[in-house]
Amino acid sequence: MGTRPSLKLDQVALPLTVAKAANALAKRLEAGDADEELIHELADLGQLRQKDLDDHRTSGAVFTPYSVAQELVREVGIEAGDSVCDPSVGPGVFLLAAAEQKFRNGESVPSIINSLRGIDIDPLTVEVARTTLQLWAAWRGKQWLAIDQLIVGDGLLDVPSHWYGGCDVVIGNPPFLGQLKSETARDSMRAKALKERFGDLYTAYVDESMLFLLLGVELSSATGTVVLIVPASLLGSDSSRPAREWIDDKLPLKDLWVGGRSVFDVAAVEVVAPILQQRQDRNCRVIRYESQDTIEVPSATAGQWSRLLAAANGTPTVTLAADVTLRDQASVTADFRDAYYWLAERVEEADLEDSRPKLATVGLIDPFCFMHGAVDTRFAKQKFERPVIQIEDDPPPKFTKWLDQKLQPKLLVATQTRIVECYADTKGELLPSTPLLSVAPMEETQLWHLMAAVASPAASAWLASVAAGTGLSQATMRIRASLLADLPLPLPSESWDEGAYLARKMQEEQAYEDVSIRFGEVMNQAYDTASEELLSWWISRLQKKQA
Ligand SMILES: C[S@@+](CC[C@H](N)C(=O)[O-])C[C@H]1O[C@@H](n2cnc3c(N)ncnc32)[C@H](O)[C@@H]1O
């Protein structure tokens, strides 16, 4: 074309800060004063919109830095002619990066603009996306083009029917709206609409971003690719398991991009991007943000996406026969919130020679060790050295039953850890506070055997691979009661008997060095997981904890 475009910015429709910046860019384009840096200035229009938004937490509006969008666009290899859709398009940074890649691949600017689709619930942000792409087209193609396929609506409920099954690439960063916090939880009307829309794949606690991943699969063509940034906890969370299994059946997890915690300035969340595509080989790649190195790991089966992250984090792979699980020999329970408040009203500092039940918190449980009196603990906003619980003579009936259950011999298991941290309360004198888990054996004589199984290297590696990404950081796992109950147990053997003996020795004599190595070895024999790698992985984490 060669001529300078005549730019018709709709400044009234734009947020004020964006209108000013867009106007300045338009003037430079009209004057022919734009260099390769312009792409970043276009992307910055979205960041200006971000600053305008009062509270990004309620809408999940955390916009993606251009460098991240560019990396994912490169990763999926968007080609000339591909149709690209972002179902929560925001200010359009992914479409901008896709447009630029297609341009470099030789596609004409009108054809590129025609191939881009996006939807977002926020009209002002859609206008920012439209302006950004128009300015890009004016820069790269010297034309002011209409952008018809950016629409305002609910991505999960309002996508035009002709988009379904027709997108070569679905890419983006949907809102993370966790359902456990009141400010991001959906209301009942929306829950009902989503239940109707997604059927059994919808669960009450499923994060909104997982529903976008389901939508992505529906939008994708049979040979298409879906890549959406989601919180790492979705890789292993229970609420999104039905969705993961459905996805693996339709458009399986091919690779995993691991963004980590530093991708977004305003939200410190561990993020990943599952890359879904029909795969040819049995291996998946794990790609880390801004790293040239990729790790090849065996592909995950039926929704078990955490395994990929675990393998990339160096967790040894273990395969455990699941003929008998912990739930067959023990009751595994988490405590309810009311019990916390009940304990909070009765916690006191111990006297000398105190025989009242001791309070156990996650901070007091270390591997084979209860740190009561050795370290301070905070509970109910107070600091205690030796917290005990003053129980009245006649506790309310609800708590009488709870106390009967809890003041029994049991294992206490911490829930946010790198390896399992567990302690055997042989006398039944500890009262656990949430989120500690209790494992009460059906046969009291089995306590040390169950301790040996739960504390074994195999159990730690198994739980880490099933729950990788669900903890507060990539390196920790969050152990849920239902997951721990699924832990396979070894078959009865002399090795397991010796493991039980050594677990007891470690706890009672606080004997570690050689004993822990021998414990790891015999439990590896009991589980049939004998491997140097597993043993040294577990020992190094145990030693870090004890240091
Ligand atoms: C995390 S931001 C990401 C935006 C953009 N994809 C990016 O990466 O910069 C999520 C976007 O989703 C939008 N949003 C929230 N709920 C939505 C819904 N139900 N349908 C479509 N968009 C939605 C928000 O307005 C916000 O722009």
Keywords for this structure?
547 residues; alpha/beta; Rossmann fold; 2 domains; 10-stranded mixed sheet; 4-stranded antiparallel sheet; 24 strands; 39% helix; elongated; binds S-adenosylmethionine
**Largest sheet: number of strands, sense, barrel closure:** 10 strands, mixed
Helix count? 20
Oligomer: single chain
> Which CATH class of the largest domain?
Alpha Beta
Radius of gyration: 27 Å
Question: Average pLDDT across residues?
Answer: 91
Secondary structure: number of strands: 24
Shape: elongated
Proportion of β residues? Answer: 15-25%
At CATH level 2, the architecture of the largest domain is: 3-Layer(aba) Sandwich
Quick one: CATH superfamily of the largest domain? Vaccinia Virus protein VP39
CATH topology of the largest domain: Rossmann fold
Bound molecules: S-adenosylmethionine
Structural class: alpha/beta
Contiguous runs where pLDDT drops below 50 for at least 5 residues: none
Explain this structure.
By secondary structure, the protein is α/β, with parallel strands linked by helices. It folds into 2 domains: 11-252, 3-Layer(aba) Sandwich (Rossmann fold), CATH 3.40.50; 326-546, no CATH class. It has 20 helices and 24 strands. The strands form 7 sheets. Strands 1, 2, 3, 4, 5, 6, 7, 8, 9 and 10 form a 10-stranded mixed β-sheet that branches. A 4-stranded antiparallel β-sheet has the order 11-23-19-21. Strands 12-18 form a two-stranded antiparallel sheet. The chain is elongated. The N and C termini lie far apart (69 Å). The mean pLDDT is 91. S-adenosylmethionine binds next to helix 5 and strand 2.
